[in-house]
Every structure is written in structure tokens, then in C-alpha cells.
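Hey, resending since the last one bounced:
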Amino acid sequence: MVGIQRNSQSSPARNAARRSCAAISVGRTRLVIPVNAVLSGLDGDRMEYNVVAKLKIYVEDPKYMEKVKKNLSEIAKVSKIWEEEIGFGIKVLKVTFLLNDNAGGMNELEEKVSKLPHVSEYEVEEVGRIG
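The C-alpha cells again:
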């Protein structure tokens, strides 16, 4: 279950921070996402992202990591992306995406990720609704 957590203490600085960011919990992961990232779409139009998804992406060869990162940011709104070692020197990409369920959501994302060059496989680790 995804919920937006806000600080209940009141002060001018806290009120400004509260208006500019939302903390979203998905499973054990806690993301702090600027509200403008939630409200503005990739093409500059205002749209609301209502789904957050975390994927583990296996890249064919470590030399393609940067290229895959660039391609991922072109197919959907990336909130966070990082490399994680899973053992024996093997690294995977962990990516948190913001999606709009009405605009294709997970089905469209999974189709695009599976067709990316140099991606051998992927796992959907967590999916949750925002709000």
C-alpha cells in the first residue's frame, strides 16, 4: 500500500517544504519526490502520476550500463536510478518509475523495457499507487 506521508509540525519553512515535496512509501522503500516531478509530464504538459514502480533490470554487459540508463529515462519518467551489486561482481540497475495508469501504466512500461537493446531481463520488484 502506498501512502503520502507529511510532517505535521507547522512553521514557515516546514510549510514550504510540505508544499514542494511528498514522501511516498512503497513496501520498504521510501521516496521523497518533488511535487513538480509528480505534476509535470515529460512533454511539459501537466499530468498526474498515480503509480510508482521499482524494477530490477539486468544488463547484458556492464559496458552498456550508461546507454541503458539513458534509454530508460527516454521511455518513462524516472524518479531514481542506481546500480546495485547482486554478487560475484554482477551489477543490476534498480529503477523507480513514475507512471500514469490511464496512459498505459505498467503494461506499456514492461513492453518498452523488454524491447530495449542490451537488456537481458527485468523483474518488477514493487508497484504501488500514489495517493
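The chain has one domain: 3-129.

Sorry for the duplicate.
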